[in-house]
Design brief:
7 strands; 7 helices; alpha/beta; binds S-adenosylmethionine; about 220 residues; five-stranded mixed sheet; single chain
């Protein structure tokens, strides 16, 4: 949210920060100090978006989130409906999640297949063209004016410790793994990620870089 601050007008009526996670909202409340901000727990892919948010917003911003939403087509419809006519949204969406390959591979190992993958890999992991899928989502939601650009990102994360924390944080399956199996699962999961093309490692793992493609979407509701 801080990265938005320089771009916000001096006076605005309200800034609404939405997230599905109570813990994330609590963290944001305690660490972010933007004027006129309200924190709202909300599943952006829900079929029951509160009426108060329909046609409410002049601008919607979302960074690194939409590809995590299971009901992604509903999410795009909600974004469209939440914008006022004349409003604009700006999204960054990852083509694939960094851990998709690991989730896919682990789901083929008999010991781990029981924990599933369908709700874990990002929506278009099995699509030949995620970009075309996002364009279709925009069109189906009602957007007629939009731009979608692709950017390749190489981002240096730091060392082994930071890398492991990131990998653990992006795995929503962990709470479902039994206590007896948790350490073995984590080991297998990290090993799969070590082999994946999402990351590259220097000799002693003190410099780990992540690689991914991102879609940058700007869309106007007319
Ligand atoms: C990778 S974080 C990005 C957070 C923030 N935008 C940033 O750039 O630092 C993704 C966020 O999306 C939230 N999220 C995932 N699914 C969601 C959903 N269905 N509705 C709302 N938020 C969701 C997660 O709780 C998490 O806080």
């Amino acid at each position: 949210m801080y990265c938005l601050q320089p771009f916000l007008p001096n006076h605005y009526k309200e800034f609404v920060a939405m997230d599905i996670s109570e813990a994330m909202l609590e963290y944001a409340k305690n660490n972010i100090n933007l004027p006129n901000t309200r924190f709202v727990e909300c599943d952006v892919g829900s079929k029951d978006i509160d009426d108060e948010f329909i046609e409410k917003f002049d601008h919607i911003f979302s960074f690194y989130c939409i590809h995590m939403i299971e009901n992604i087509s509903q999410a795009f419809k909600n974004l469209y409906n939440m914008l006022k006519p004349g409003g604009q949204m700006f999204l960054t969406v990852m083509e694939y999640s960094l851990a998709d390959v690991a989730f896919h591979k682990l789901s083929k190992i008999p010991r781990w297949e029981k924990y599933g993958k369908q709700t874990t890999v990002s929506p278009f992991y099995y699509s030949e063209s995620p970009k075309e899928e996002y364009i279709k989502l925009l069109q189906d939601a009602g957007f007629k004016h939009y731009v979608l650009e692709t950017e390749s990102i190489d981002f240096e994360l730091g060392g082994e410790d930071v890398w492991q924390k990131l990998c653990i944080a992006i795995n929503p399956l962990l709470p479902k793994i039994s206590a007896e199996e948790l350490e073995d699962y984590k080991l297998d999961y990290l090993n799969q990620l070590r082999k994946s093309r999402s990351f590259s490692f220097n000799n002693n793992n003190s410099r780990i870089t992540t690689h991914f493609k991102m879609f940058i979407i700007v869309a106007n509701k007319i």
